[in-house]
Amino acid sequence: MADKVVSLRIFEDEQGKMNRSVLDVRGGVLAISQFTLFGDARKGTRPGFVDAARPEIAQPLYARFCELARERGVQVSEGVFRATMQVRIVNEGPVTLLLDSKRSF
User: From CA 29, how far away is CA 35, in angstroms rounded?
Assistant: First the structure.
């Protein structure tokens, strides 16, 4: 997943096409662990999180992702694992991508 994130061509080139990666633009990654993204709301009205990894499994995976992204030459800023955080971002453009290493959707 780290390879995919740092290599994904999501930044515009001179022609306005998404043709540059975070490596190409010498950008950085803000990695925030958020188990709630794994919430399953297909049944009922309350999301379930039973398929989310337990913290003792998820934290080393999160740390390894950050480590691998750094090894590929990307500056990585991290959130605090299992903390309640307020993150303010500015999205540029009309694109939202969902990456899934298990191809479950």
Answer: 18
